[in-house]
Design a protein that fits this description.
By secondary structure, the protein is an alpha/beta fold. Helix content is about 40%, strand content about 20%. The protein has eleven helices and twelve strands. A ten-stranded mixed sheet has the order 2-1-3-12-11-4-5-10-8-9, with helices on both faces. Strands 6-7 form a two-stranded antiparallel ribbon. The longest helix has 20 residues. The chain starts with 5 loop residues before the first strand and ends with a helix.
Length: about 375
C-alpha cells in the first residue's frame, strides 16, 4: 500500500445462496476500483454467518458478533435465507439484529432506469422514473414486539405490535426532507395508512406535519399506501423522494425495482447517520435458492450497493470513484452485457469482468 492509499475495513457477510456469488463479484469490482483510483484500498474481513452454518452450530452470529462488526468502517451483506430454515429465524438471527444494534435507522433504496435496461411500463423512460425511497429501518411493523400464547392449541393467539415513537419518526422524516432537499426536484411524498391504522400511523402523520414546517423549500404531498402502488405504476414521473414505514417501504421498494427493470439491479444502504456504528450495504434481492451456485445471478444490484458504500465511507472524498463505478455499470448494461433477468445472455462472471474492464477505461479518461 502506498502512503497515499487510505484503507477502509469492510466486514463481508456473504450469507446464503446467491449472496455468496454476488459478494464475491462485488469484492472483485471494489478491488479493481481501488486499484484504478489509486488513493484508497479495502481490507475485507469475511464472516461465515449463514443458514448452512446455523444448521450445524445453532447460531448465526457469535455472542460477540456485534463487537466484531463495530471494528469496521462498513458492512457488506449478501443475502440471508434458505428453504430449510424458517424465514423469521434467519432474519431475526442475522440481518435484523445488525440493523438494530448498529443504529441503522435509515434504509435508502434508490431506483432508476439504468442505460441499456428496459422498464416494463410502455411509456416510462429514464427521466420518468428516478426515485429515492427512504425507509424507516428500526421500528414500525418490524419492531419485533408481540408474542404467541397457546401456540400448539386450536385457540392460539398471536400479536404483532407495530411500534411508532415520536423520536423515531422525527429522525426519519428529517432525513427524508434533507434527501429531498439535496435532489434537483426538491419533492417528497410521504406514504401512510392513517385512515385505517388510527394510532401509530396518525402519530406518523402528525410528526411529519411538524417536521415539514422546517423545510419550506421542499414540495411535499401524502399518499395512502394502497393508492401509492397505483401512482407508482400509472404516474411514475410525479414522484421523486419517498418516505415510508418499515413494512410499507419494504414492499414499495420491491415494486419500484420491478418497475425499473429487475429486482436484480436494486441497491440498499442501511445507515447510521450519526456514524457511531458501521453502516451496512446490500442488494435488495434475496438468496434465490433456485439459482444459487449456478453463476447466473445478476450482480448489478451488488455493484450499485458497493458504489453507495464507497460514497458513504468516503465522506465526500470518494465521489469520483463512486461515480466512476456507476458509469462503468451503465456503460456495460448499455453495451448489452447483461444477465438473463435483464434480457441478456451473460453470466455473473462475464458481467463482473466487463465492469472491471470498464472501470479501468473510465478512470483512465478522468
Amino acid at each position: 500500500m502506498s502512503s497515499t492509499e487510505k484503507p477502509y475495513r469492510v466486514a463481508c457477510i456473504p450469507g446464503d445462496g446467491i449472496g455468496v456469488d454476488i459478494t464475491d463479484a462485488a469484492i472483485q469490482v471494489l478491488n479493481k476500483l481501488a486499484e484504478a483510483a489509486g488513493n484508497f484500498k479495502f481490507d475485507f474481513v469475511h464472516f461465515d454467518w449463514s443458514s448452512k452454518n446455523f444448521k450445524e452450530r445453532g447460531w448465526y452470529m457469535p455472542e460477540d458478533g456485534m463487537e466484531q462488526l463495530k471494528k469496521h468502517d462498513a458492512i457488506y451483506f449478501g443475502a440471508v435465507g434458505w428453504p430449510d430454515v424458517p424465514d423469521h429465524i434467519s432474519l431475526w438471527g442475522l440481518i435484523l439484529p445488525i440493523r438494530k444494534s448498529m443504529n441503522q435507522y435509515v434504509n435508502v433504496r434508490p431506483t432508476r432506469i439504468l442505460r441499456g435496461t428496459e422498464a416494463p411500463l410502455k411509456k416510462c423512460g429514464p427521466k420518468d422514473l428516478d426515485w429515492v425511497i427512504v425507509r424507516e429501518n428500526s421500528e414500525g411493523e418490524y419492531a419485533g414486539q408481540g408474542g404467541t400464547t397457546h401456540d400448539h392449541a386450536a385457540y392460539a393467539v398471536a400479536t404483532e405490535v407495530a411500534i411508532f415513537t415520536a423520536i423515531g419518526i422525527d429522525r426519519i422524516m428529517r432525513f427524508a426532507f434533507e434527501t429531498a432537499l439535496s435532489r434537483p426536484r426538491k419533492k417528497l411524498t410521504m406514504v401512510t395508512k392513517s385512515n385505517a391504522q388510527r394510532h401509530g400511523m396518525v402519530l406518523w402523520d402528525k410528526v411529519f406535519d411538524q417536521v415539514a414546517k422546517d423545510y419550506p423549500d421542499v414540495e411535499w404531498d401524502k399518499m395512502l399506501v394502497d393508492a401509492m402502488t397505483v401512482r407508482m405504476v400509472l404516474h411514475p414521473q410525479t414522484l421523486d423522494t419517498i418516505v415510508a414505514t418499515n413494512l410499507h417501504a419494504d414492499i414499495l421498494s420491491d415494486l419500484a425495482a420491478a418497475l425499473s427493470g429487475s429486482i436484480g439491479i436494486a441497491p440498499s444502504s442501511n445507515l447510521d447517520p450519526t456514524r457511531g456504528c458501521p453502516s451496512m450495504f446490500e442488494p435488495i434481492h434475496g438468496s434465490a435458492p433456485d439459482i444459487a451456485g449456478k453463476g447466473i445471478a445478476n450482480p448489478v444490484g451488488a455493484f450499485w450497493s458497493a458504489a453507495e458504500m464507497v460514497r458513504w465511507v468516503g465522506k465526500g472524498e470518494l465521489e469520483e470513484a463512486a461515480d466512476a463505478l456507476m458509469l462503468a455499470i451503465e456503460n456495460v448494461t448499455e453495451a448489452g452485457i447483461k444477465t438473463k433477468d435483464l434480457g441478456g445472455d451473460k453470466n455473473t462472471k462475464e458481467v463482473t469482468e466487463a465492469v472491471c474492464k470498464e472501470i479501468e477505461k473510465v478512470l483512465r479518461k478522468s
